[in-house]
Design goal:
Elements: E1 7-12, H1 20-31, E2 35-39, H2 47-56, E3 62-69, H3 75-88, E4 93-98, H4 102-107, H5 115-130, E5 135-138, E6 143-147, E7 160-162, H6 166-175, E8 178-181, H7 188-197, E9 205-211, E10 213-214, H8 218-234, H9 238-241, H10 246-262, H11 266-272, E11 275-276, H12 278-291, E12 295-299, H13 304-318
Parallel strand pairs: 1-2, 1-12, 2-3, 3-4, 4-7, 7-8, 8-9, 9-12, 10-11
Antiparallel strand pairs: 5-6
Helix pairs in contact: 1-2, 1-13, 2-3, 3-5, 5-6, 7-12, 8-10, 11-12
Amino acid sequence: MTASRAEIGICFDRTFPPPLVTEFARRLEHGGADQLWVIEDCFYTTGVSLAASALAVTERLRVGIGILPAVARSAAVTAMEIATLCGLAPGRVLPGIGHGVQTWMQQMGAKPASPVTTLEEVLVAVRRLLDGDRVTMHGQHVHLDDVGLAQPPADPPPVLAGVSGPKSLAMAGRSAGGVVLAPEPASPSFVRWALDKAGNPGSFHVAVFSVLCVEDDRAAAYRAMAPWLESQLGEPNMALRLLPFFDDLAARHDQQGLHGLATMPPDWWMEIGPIGTVDDAVAHIEALEAAGVRSIGMSPAPVVEIAMAQLDDVLRLAAR
C-alpha cells in the first residue's frame, strides 16, 4: 500500500508577535506550502484569533490550531469558534483540542478532576455540534441542554485530540477525528506506537510537530541541534523514550556530552526529525508518511529572524 503524501507547513511559535502571522501565511501560500499551525499556550496568544487572521489573508492555505485547552472555553463556545472559522474558510481548518498543561489549568482555576474524561466529553460534544446535532449532555464536565449551532459547517473538519499518553490515545481513538502529536521528537516509531494505542482507527488524521534544522552540511545541522537534544534528555518525554536507540543515545550523552550527540549516526538524527540536509529531511518526511502521518508542522527556531529564513526550507520540502 502506497503511503499518502503528507501536507507540509510550519508552526507559528507562541513567542512570535501576533502581526507576523499574516506574513507567515502569505509567504507559505505564495510559495506553495500546505499548512500553517498556530499555537495556543497559556499565557501567550490565542489560536482562534491567529487562525482567523491567517485564513483572512489566504485562499488555499490550511490552518491548524495546536492546541485548544479543553477547559479554557465551554464545549459550546469551542464548537462556535471552530464553526465560525469553517464558515470563513471552508475546508481549511484543522482544530486540535487537548488537556492543556495542568499547572496552567490550575492557575486559571480550571483544572479538571479527570483530564481524560473531561477531554473525551468535550471532543464528543464539539464533534456532535459541528455535525449539526442538537445536543443534550450531562457529564462530569460538559452540561448541555438542547444546544445546537445555528450555522454548523457544511463539511465538518476532523477534530484532533492533542494527546500523547496511552490512556489519552485510546480515548482519542474512540472520540476524536485524529491526533496532534505535539511532543518532540515525533518520530516514525512514536507515530506507530501512538496509532497502536489509539486502536489504529480508520480515517484518522495524524498531525505531528517536527523540530526543523536544514543545512547544506549535515554535520553543521547536527551541531546546531545537539543543545536542543541535550535539553530534551534532561526530562525525557514519552516520544523520546520510544526512540529505538534511546538507551544508547542516553549512554552516549553520559559519556561524551554534546560532542557525542553532534556525532551521532545520521540514521538516528533522521529518526528524530527533519534535521540535516534537504535530502535527510525528505527521508524523514517519507518515513512519517509511511507511518501514517497526514500533516507535518515544522517547528522553527524560536527566533523570528531565523524562523523567517527557515520558511524557505519549508517551501523546498513542501515542493519535494
